[in-house]
Amino acid sequence: MELLNGTGLWSMAIFTVIFILLVDLMHRRHRWTSRYPPGPVPWPVLGNLLQVDLSNMPYSLYKLQHRYGDVFSLQKGWKPMVIVNRLKAVQEVLVTHGEDTADRPPVPIFKCLGVKPRSQGVILASYGPEWREQRRFSVSTLRTFGMGKKSLEEWVTKEAGHLCDAFTAQAGQSINPKAMLNKALCNVIASLIFARRFEYEDPYLIRMVKLVEESLTEVSGFIPEGTTLIINLSSVLKDETVWEKPHRFHPEHFLDAQGNFVKHEAFMPFSAGRRACLGEPLARMELFLFFTCLLQRFSFSVPVGQPRPSTHGFFAFPVAPLPYQLCAVVREQGL
Ligand code: HEM
Questions:
Q1: How far is the CA of 213 from the centre of ligand 1 (A)?
Q2: pLDDT one-digit tens code per residue, 223-275
Q3: Which of the listed residues 277, 280, 286, 288 should we mutate to test ligand 1's pocket, taking the one with most ligand atoms within 8 A of CB?
Q4: Which residues, 6+ apart, have CB-to-CB distance to 43 below 8 Å?
Q5: Per residue in 69-117, pLDDT tens?
Q6: For 273, phi and psi rounded to 5 degrees?
Q7: Which residue has a Cα nearest atom 37 of ligand 1?
Q8: Which amino acid positions bind heme, per UniProt (predicted)?
Q9: Are 126 and 120 in contact (CB under 8 A)?
Q10: Which of 91, 180, 268, 321 has the fewest beta carbons under 10 Å from its own?
């Protein structure tokens, strides 16, 4: 009891602070000797946690990149991380040094659950024979089931029709289309795997969408745990040294002087190199068919009294739009 009174308490507090500062100093020495790229000075114990706005990570990283350069360091607690920004540096890391940067940090929950390397799936798996085998298997299975083929296009077109019907049912109202879009995407995967789709009210489909959403959030929570290298794809998609109007939707970015489509090397929403998205052909097909179908059938507007959708993303995997409302009105034929 005596120990917790007055001077005893003070001595204990001072001892604890000195102990923490010493441990912190040991970690800092490791950082100094390892010669990390520049970055903001980390706080003892917390690292740079208070210097980044977790609710708007892309903007925080954007400001840091302008201050410290395209490759800079941050510390999450005592864990050092290197953030890579803009086309040139990202290409160098993902493509030129692809072999050295294709690994993924161990996932603590996998260890706790005793998940074996062969059961880690593709996205989070370490770069090794198990990942290679799972990736090859996934690509060939997706192809067998129709990825990149006409048969899948029919499923996606059919689903786009159902999506349009769901929009029609709520035409003229202020809606958040997220749930409908997620159900349509889940149905495409269901078409691939089960060769059938589900009605949007079907409890099974609703459960599936919820599970996918939850698992994605979990993943984003675990990624930073062991991550030392963070590839900031947003900084490539909005690279001011590459795009004419980097912060605007500007279709001319992808058109030549004659109005023909041109590919742009900085357009890499599916990443690049060995760990690039393997579902890209399917995702592109879905985006094209869903968008064209919706835009042909409806005029979209911001409902009266609602703000314009924000261009800031919600920082998860993948980055998602912040909630927004829109109003879809059925187009008159020929307009
Ligand atoms: C618009 C939709 C999509 C976007 C923007 C997207 C984006 C990405 C990105 C940026 C990565 C790299 C992640 C990393 O570096 O760790 C990735 C990986 C991956 N994506 Fe996608 N993706 C999309 C749709 C899909 C679909 C439809 C599938 C499945 C059919 C899929 C399956 C995968 C897999 C399995 C990986 C891990 C690849 C590996 O680590 O080897 N994605 N995706």
A1: 15
A2: 434 447 889 999 999 999 999 999 888 999 999 999 999 999 999 999 999 99
A3: 277
A4: 49, 50, 51
A5: 999 989 888 888 899 999 999 999 999 989 988 988 777 777 777 777 7
A6: 80, -160
A7: 123
A8: 277
A9: yes
A10: 321
